[in-house]
Amino acid sequence: MGDLDKLDVTMEQLKQSQRELNKEKREEIQLQTHRNKKEKEYSDWWNKELTNQRIKQDKLNESEKERTENLRHQIELAQKQARLKVQNLMDRNSEHITSEDRDKLNQYVKSMEAINTNTPKARQQIQMLNHEFKQTSSRISTASQQAMGFGNRLKEALSTIPLWINFTIVPYSSNVIVKTSLIAGNS
């Protein structure tokens, strides 16, 4: 083999090595491109996921704000109603309210006014307080009706006394007068 042949073989080996290097480089570039593509896809997916989570959180926050505002409004209404109900009950039945019931009514209003949007189970507490008020109110109304019933019966009874006097005493006194004049005339 001559130098020329050796040079051809070496040149061929060099070209072969170059092709292998180029092939490896292409594969490496393809692999890197694939990795970059996957990383970009993952990054895009992650950004999209974060955006969706932020949107969901914003919706939840908005929904929570609405629920809190609704609860605040319900609490304010319940507090106003409590004051009005107690005032009306006291106005209608002031003579028949015991000091114990008056204390319960005042405690009802104070307890109702202590409720706010941070109160755990605020709606249930309002319902419980309203139930207690109904019990107290019912007891006061019953006592008031019984007192008025007794007063009406007494009034009715007293109104019949003049009639009773007219029908029982007047005829008796007339008889006494007649008898007295007869006795006086006979003497």
Give the amount of beta strand, in percent: under 5%
- Element pattern in H and E: HHH
Main β-sheet description? none
Specify the helix fraction band.
over 70%
Q: In angstroms, what is the radius of gyration?
A: 51 Å
Structural class: mainly alpha
The counted number of beta strands is 0
Compute the number of structural domains.
1
- Give the overall shape, derived from the CA principal axes: rod-shaped
Q: What is the tally of helical segments?
A: 3
Nearest-integer average pLDDT: 81
Give the uncertain stretches in residue-range form: none
Write up what this structure looks like.
With 187 residues, this protein is an all-alpha fold. It has one domain (3-186). 92% of the residues lie in helices and 0% in strands. The chain is built from three helices and no strands. It has helices spanning 3-93, 99-114, 122-186.
